[in-house]
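Data deposition worksheet. Section B asks for the primary sequence of the deposited chain exactly as it was used as input, without tags or linkers unless they were present during the calculation. Section C holds the resulting structure in C-alpha coordinate form. Section D is free text for depositor observations; keep each observation to a single sentence. Incomplete worksheets are returned to the depositor.
Section A, Depositor: J.P.
Section B:
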Amino acid sequence: MLRVLHEGAAERCSHALAHLLRRPTTVRLTGVDDVAYGDFVFSLEQPTFVCVLSGGDSSARLALEINHSILFPLLDCLLGGNPAISGLLVPHRGLTQIERRMAARLVGVIVEQLATAWPNAAEEEPASKPTSKPPANHGPTIERVESDPGQARLANSADRVVLVSFEIALGAVRGLLNVCLPWPAVLALVAELPEPFVPDARAAPPAEVAGDENAGHVSQGAVQTASHRRGALVELVVELDGGQLTIEDLQALRVGDIITTSQGADEPLIATVDGQPRFLVRPGSLGGQKAIEVQREIADPASEAPRRAG
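Section C:
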Protein backbone atom coordinates (compact mmCIF):
# COMPACT_ATOMS: atom_id res chain seq x y z
CA MET A 1 0.00 0.00 0.00
CA LEU A 2 2.72 2.50 0.96
CA ARG A 3 4.71 1.68 -2.17
CA VAL A 4 1.72 2.26 -4.44
CA LEU A 5 0.95 5.59 -2.76
CA HIS A 6 4.51 6.87 -3.12
CA GLU A 7 5.12 5.66 -6.66
CA GLY A 8 2.48 8.14 -7.83
CA ALA A 9 3.99 10.87 -5.66
CA ALA A 10 7.42 10.25 -7.23
CA GLU A 11 6.03 10.84 -10.71
CA ARG A 12 4.34 14.05 -9.60
CA CYS A 13 7.59 15.22 -7.97
CA SER A 14 9.36 14.67 -11.28
CA HIS A 15 6.99 17.00 -13.11
CA ALA A 16 6.93 19.61 -10.33
CA LEU A 17 10.74 19.82 -10.01
CA ALA A 18 11.23 19.85 -13.78
CA HIS A 19 8.81 22.79 -14.00
CA LEU A 20 10.54 24.64 -11.15
CA LEU A 21 14.09 24.07 -12.40
CA ARG A 22 13.30 24.36 -16.12
CA ARG A 23 15.40 21.26 -16.63
CA PRO A 24 14.59 17.54 -17.09
CA THR A 25 14.37 16.01 -13.63
CA THR A 26 13.42 12.48 -12.63
CA VAL A 27 12.30 11.21 -9.22
CA ARG A 28 11.78 7.49 -8.69
CA LEU A 29 10.90 5.43 -5.66
CA THR A 30 13.75 3.10 -4.63
CA GLY A 31 12.39 1.51 -1.47
CA VAL A 32 9.92 1.44 1.41
CA ASP A 33 11.45 -0.14 4.49
CA ASP A 34 10.81 -0.70 8.18
CA VAL A 35 14.05 0.25 10.01
CA ALA A 36 15.22 1.28 13.46
CA TYR A 37 15.40 5.06 13.81
CA GLY A 38 19.00 4.83 15.02
CA ASP A 39 19.99 2.89 11.88
CA PHE A 40 18.40 5.57 9.70
CA VAL A 41 20.33 8.36 11.43
CA PHE A 42 23.61 6.41 11.29
CA SER A 43 23.23 5.78 7.55
CA LEU A 44 23.12 9.48 6.65
CA GLU A 45 26.06 11.60 5.58
CA GLN A 46 27.21 14.35 7.91
CA PRO A 47 26.70 17.17 7.36
CA THR A 48 23.50 16.72 5.41
CA PHE A 49 20.21 18.57 4.98
CA VAL A 50 17.40 17.35 7.24
CA CYS A 51 14.03 19.10 7.41
CA VAL A 52 11.90 18.26 10.43
CA LEU A 53 8.26 18.60 9.38
CA SER A 54 5.17 18.88 11.54
CA GLY A 55 2.40 16.57 10.38
CA GLY A 56 -0.28 19.12 9.57
CA ASP A 57 -2.92 19.41 12.30
CA SER A 58 -1.49 16.51 14.31
CA SER A 59 1.42 16.50 16.74
CA ALA A 60 3.26 13.92 14.65
CA ARG A 61 6.71 14.76 13.29
CA LEU A 62 8.53 13.42 10.25
CA ALA A 63 11.84 14.16 8.54
CA LEU A 64 12.88 14.77 4.95
CA GLU A 65 16.58 14.38 4.10
CA ILE A 66 18.23 15.35 0.81
CA ASN A 67 21.79 14.22 0.12
CA HIS A 68 24.22 17.04 -0.58
CA SER A 69 25.28 15.21 -3.75
CA ILE A 70 21.96 16.21 -5.36
CA LEU A 71 20.90 19.16 -3.19
CA PHE A 72 23.74 21.48 -4.26
CA PRO A 73 23.17 20.76 -7.99
CA LEU A 74 19.45 21.52 -7.46
CA LEU A 75 20.33 24.81 -5.78
CA ASP A 76 22.75 25.59 -8.62
CA CYS A 77 19.89 25.12 -11.09
CA LEU A 78 17.70 27.50 -9.12
CA LEU A 79 20.45 30.09 -9.58
CA GLY A 80 20.52 29.50 -13.34
CA GLY A 81 23.47 27.12 -13.46
CA ASN A 82 23.79 23.83 -15.28
CA PRO A 83 25.57 21.16 -13.17
CA ALA A 84 25.92 18.96 -16.27
CA ILE A 85 28.43 21.37 -17.81
CA SER A 86 29.70 23.38 -14.86
CA GLY A 87 31.48 20.50 -13.09
CA LEU A 88 29.99 21.56 -9.75
CA LEU A 89 32.01 20.40 -6.74
CA VAL A 90 29.79 19.47 -3.80
CA PRO A 91 31.06 21.35 -0.71
CA HIS A 92 31.43 19.41 2.53
CA ARG A 93 29.66 21.89 4.83
CA GLY A 94 26.27 22.89 6.11
CA LEU A 95 24.05 25.23 4.13
CA THR A 96 24.21 29.01 4.47
CA GLN A 97 21.09 30.97 5.43
CA ILE A 98 20.50 31.93 1.79
CA GLU A 99 20.93 28.32 0.67
CA ARG A 100 18.53 27.17 3.37
CA ARG A 101 15.84 29.53 2.10
CA MET A 102 16.34 28.22 -1.43
CA ALA A 103 16.28 24.62 -0.18
CA ALA A 104 13.04 25.36 1.68
CA ARG A 105 11.50 26.25 -1.67
CA LEU A 106 12.51 22.85 -3.05
CA VAL A 107 11.19 21.11 0.04
CA GLY A 108 7.88 22.94 -0.29
CA VAL A 109 7.44 21.64 -3.84
CA ILE A 110 8.40 18.09 -2.84
CA VAL A 111 6.19 17.99 0.25
CA GLU A 112 3.24 19.35 -1.72
CA GLN A 113 3.50 16.35 -4.05
CA LEU A 114 4.15 13.85 -1.26
CA ALA A 115 1.08 15.11 0.59
CA THR A 116 -1.04 13.88 -2.31
CA ALA A 117 0.07 10.35 -1.34
CA TRP A 118 -1.07 10.86 2.26
CA PRO A 119 -4.88 10.79 2.40
CA ASN A 120 -5.18 12.61 5.74
CA ALA A 121 -2.79 15.36 4.63
CA ALA A 122 -5.02 16.22 1.70
CA GLU A 123 -8.34 16.35 3.55
CA GLU A 124 -10.42 19.47 3.10
CA GLU A 125 -13.41 20.93 4.89
CA PRO A 126 -16.71 19.85 3.27
CA ALA A 127 -18.04 22.44 0.82
CA SER A 128 -21.50 22.19 2.42
CA LYS A 129 -20.19 23.81 5.60
CA PRO A 130 -19.21 27.38 4.71
CA THR A 131 -17.14 29.20 7.31
CA SER A 132 -15.38 32.52 7.65
CA LYS A 133 -12.28 30.85 9.11
CA PRO A 134 -9.30 30.18 6.84
CA PRO A 135 -8.95 26.53 5.77
CA ALA A 136 -7.00 24.31 8.14
CA ASN A 137 -3.44 23.44 7.17
CA HIS A 138 -3.54 19.65 6.93
CA GLY A 139 -0.25 19.32 5.01
CA PRO A 140 3.17 19.01 6.68
CA THR A 141 5.09 22.24 7.23
CA ILE A 142 8.78 22.90 7.93
CA GLU A 143 9.43 23.13 11.66
CA ARG A 144 13.23 23.35 11.63
CA VAL A 145 16.30 22.46 9.58
CA GLU A 146 19.33 20.50 10.84
CA SER A 147 22.76 19.75 9.35
CA ASP A 148 23.46 17.03 11.93
CA PRO A 149 20.93 14.20 11.45
CA GLY A 150 21.32 13.27 15.11
CA GLN A 151 19.70 16.56 16.10
CA ALA A 152 16.38 15.70 14.41
CA ARG A 153 15.41 13.53 17.40
CA LEU A 154 12.14 12.22 16.03
CA ALA A 155 12.17 8.98 17.98
CA ASN A 156 14.25 6.79 20.25
CA SER A 157 17.12 4.93 18.60
CA ALA A 158 15.40 1.52 18.82
CA ASP A 159 11.96 2.74 17.66
CA ARG A 160 10.78 1.44 14.30
CA VAL A 161 10.13 3.95 11.52
CA VAL A 162 9.04 3.72 7.90
CA LEU A 163 11.80 4.89 5.55
CA VAL A 164 10.66 5.92 2.08
CA SER A 165 13.62 6.46 -0.26
CA PHE A 166 13.66 8.19 -3.64
CA GLU A 167 16.39 8.86 -6.19
CA ILE A 168 16.49 12.29 -7.80
CA ALA A 169 18.26 12.46 -11.17
CA LEU A 170 19.22 15.80 -12.70
CA GLY A 171 20.83 14.77 -15.96
CA ALA A 172 23.81 12.59 -15.01
CA VAL A 173 23.81 13.90 -11.42
CA ARG A 174 21.98 11.71 -8.91
CA GLY A 175 21.28 11.64 -5.18
CA LEU A 176 18.88 10.31 -2.59
CA LEU A 177 15.83 11.85 -0.98
CA ASN A 178 14.80 10.06 2.23
CA VAL A 179 11.52 10.50 4.07
CA CYS A 180 11.48 9.17 7.64
CA LEU A 181 7.98 8.48 8.97
CA PRO A 182 7.71 7.47 12.63
CA TRP A 183 4.59 5.39 13.19
CA PRO A 184 2.61 8.29 14.77
CA ALA A 185 3.19 10.21 11.52
CA VAL A 186 2.13 7.21 9.41
CA LEU A 187 -1.11 6.87 11.34
CA ALA A 188 -1.78 10.63 11.30
CA LEU A 189 -1.09 11.18 7.58
CA VAL A 190 -1.92 7.86 5.93
CA ALA A 191 -4.46 6.56 8.47
CA GLU A 192 -4.36 3.11 10.00
CA LEU A 193 -3.13 0.52 7.51
CA PRO A 194 -5.41 -2.43 6.78
CA GLU A 195 -2.68 -4.93 7.66
CA PRO A 196 0.69 -4.97 9.45
CA PHE A 197 3.35 -3.21 7.45
CA VAL A 198 5.72 -5.57 5.63
CA PRO A 199 8.96 -4.06 4.22
CA ASP A 200 9.13 -3.98 0.46
CA ALA A 201 10.91 -7.18 -0.60
CA ARG A 202 11.01 -6.37 -4.32
CA ALA A 203 14.41 -5.40 -5.65
CA ALA A 204 14.67 -1.74 -6.63
CA PRO A 205 16.07 -0.82 -10.06
CA PRO A 206 19.84 -0.17 -10.16
CA ALA A 207 20.80 3.18 -8.64
CA GLU A 208 23.89 5.27 -8.03
CA VAL A 209 25.38 5.16 -4.54
CA ALA A 210 25.71 8.51 -2.82
CA GLY A 211 29.34 9.17 -1.97
CA ASP A 212 30.55 9.55 1.60
CA GLU A 213 33.22 12.25 1.80
CA ASN A 214 33.76 11.60 5.50
CA ALA A 215 34.96 8.05 4.99
CA GLY A 216 38.48 8.84 6.25
CA HIS A 217 37.22 9.85 9.69
CA VAL A 218 35.31 6.76 10.76
CA SER A 219 36.48 4.23 13.26
CA GLN A 220 38.84 1.46 12.13
CA GLY A 221 37.02 -1.76 11.35
CA ALA A 222 35.48 -3.87 8.62
CA VAL A 223 32.07 -4.08 7.03
CA GLN A 224 31.04 -7.68 6.44
CA THR A 225 28.09 -9.13 4.57
CA ALA A 226 27.13 -12.32 2.77
CA SER A 227 26.42 -12.29 -0.94
CA HIS A 228 24.87 -14.98 -3.15
CA ARG A 229 26.69 -16.13 -6.26
CA ARG A 230 25.14 -19.04 -8.10
CA GLY A 231 23.57 -20.24 -4.86
CA ALA A 232 26.84 -20.25 -2.86
CA LEU A 233 27.61 -17.89 0.00
CA VAL A 234 30.81 -15.84 -0.12
CA GLU A 235 32.21 -13.40 2.42
CA LEU A 236 32.58 -9.80 1.29
CA VAL A 237 34.83 -7.61 3.48
CA VAL A 238 35.69 -3.93 3.05
CA GLU A 239 38.55 -2.68 5.22
CA LEU A 240 38.46 1.01 6.07
CA ASP A 241 42.11 1.15 7.15
CA GLY A 242 45.03 -1.16 7.82
CA GLY A 243 46.72 1.10 10.35
CA GLN A 244 47.89 0.34 13.89
CA LEU A 245 47.05 1.53 17.41
CA THR A 246 49.21 1.48 20.52
CA ILE A 247 47.95 -0.46 23.53
CA GLU A 248 47.75 2.84 25.44
CA ASP A 249 45.54 4.42 22.76
CA LEU A 250 43.35 1.33 22.62
CA GLN A 251 42.79 1.33 26.39
CA ALA A 252 41.88 5.02 26.32
CA LEU A 253 39.18 4.64 23.63
CA ARG A 254 35.65 5.59 24.64
CA VAL A 255 32.30 5.49 22.84
CA GLY A 256 32.12 8.42 20.43
CA ASP A 257 35.88 8.82 19.98
CA ILE A 258 37.10 9.40 16.42
CA ILE A 259 40.12 7.57 15.03
CA THR A 260 41.94 9.43 12.28
CA THR A 261 42.95 6.92 9.63
CA SER A 262 46.05 7.00 7.47
CA GLN A 263 43.95 6.74 4.33
CA GLY A 264 42.43 9.86 2.77
CA ALA A 265 38.65 10.23 2.44
CA ASP A 266 38.91 10.40 -1.36
CA GLU A 267 41.01 7.22 -1.71
CA PRO A 268 39.26 4.02 -2.83
CA LEU A 269 38.88 1.06 -0.48
CA ILE A 270 39.57 -2.58 -1.27
CA ALA A 271 36.79 -5.16 -1.18
CA THR A 272 37.93 -8.75 -0.66
CA VAL A 273 35.88 -11.81 -1.59
CA ASP A 274 36.70 -14.86 0.51
CA GLY A 275 39.98 -13.19 1.52
CA GLN A 276 41.06 -12.28 -2.02
CA PRO A 277 41.24 -8.61 -3.19
CA ARG A 278 38.68 -8.25 -5.98
CA PHE A 279 37.39 -4.68 -6.30
CA LEU A 280 38.22 -1.05 -5.62
CA VAL A 281 35.16 0.57 -4.05
CA ARG A 282 34.02 3.79 -2.42
CA PRO A 283 31.72 4.00 0.62
CA GLY A 284 28.34 5.67 0.70
CA SER A 285 24.70 5.15 1.63
CA LEU A 286 21.65 3.86 -0.20
CA GLY A 287 18.09 3.39 0.97
CA GLY A 288 18.96 4.13 4.58
CA GLN A 289 21.83 1.64 4.74
CA LYS A 290 25.59 1.81 4.42
CA ALA A 291 26.68 0.80 0.93
CA ILE A 292 29.68 0.58 -1.39
CA GLU A 293 30.00 1.44 -5.07
CA VAL A 294 32.34 -0.72 -7.16
CA GLN A 295 34.72 1.47 -9.15
CA ARG A 296 36.74 -1.22 -10.92
CA GLU A 297 37.94 -4.79 -10.64
CA ILE A 298 41.47 -5.39 -9.34
CA ALA A 299 43.44 -6.95 -12.18
CA ASP A 300 46.65 -7.53 -10.20
CA PRO A 301 46.00 -8.15 -6.46
CA ALA A 302 49.74 -8.00 -5.70
CA SER A 303 49.89 -4.37 -6.85
CA GLU A 304 47.32 -3.41 -4.22
CA ALA A 305 49.08 -5.12 -1.31
CA PRO A 306 50.89 -1.98 -0.10
CA ARG A 307 47.62 -0.06 -0.08
CA ARG A 308 45.96 -2.76 2.02
CA ALA A 309 48.70 -2.66 4.60
CA GLY A 310 48.14 1.09 5.11
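Section D:
The helical segments are 2-21, 37-43, 68-78, 83-86, 97-115, 183-189, 247-252, 305-309.
Residues 123-137, 201-232 have pLDDT under 50 and may be disordered.
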